[in-house]
Hints:
The protein is mainly α. The protein is about 55% helix and about 5% strand. Strands 1-3-2 form a three-stranded mixed sheet. Helix 1 packs across helix 3 (about 50-60) and helix 4 crosses helix 5. The longest helix has 23 residues, at about 85-110. The protein is globular. Residues about 170-175 have low confidence and may be disordered.
Amino acid sequence: LAKEILLYGKEEILVAYAFFGIAFSEMAILCPSEYEEPGLTEKGYEIPEEYVIRQFQKEKNKITRTLLHGLLHYIFSHDFTVFHTKEEQKLWQAATDFVTEDIAMELMGDDAGLSEDSCKKEILKPYKEKVRPFTAELLYDYLRENPGEVPGEKTMQMFALDGHGLWNGGAVSKEE
Length: 176
């Protein structure tokens, strides 16, 4: 069932945006049972079966969004191993998730969105006004230079559709 849901999500993205086909062909989508949350590993984008079924039951578009979120991390080569301190890592992860979700919301639109999208858009609005263009790198720099603007843990969790702990520098090379 989980594999069928993942295939459905992938097809939803490809029907709307065929140009993602090449990226999807390079990024394997797997259903391991040893992880609790999705994440990119050296094997591909791994989404646990239980997670897929549970999230799909809660909200039909959640798995499609999760796949798109992971695919955008993959395309942008967001490397989660480049920072040395936990604070730098936390800011980078928030910046990449905020920008990735912004793009995903824009691509999916309101018809295929999630129940929390309107809240996410409100959270993003002041950042998008101050950080132009709205890229992970520039948002990271802005958050680092403006510690009072760093979002709280609950807000960061809302934007984190996958875990970054499994990601490693070798998972996606800059050449790929």
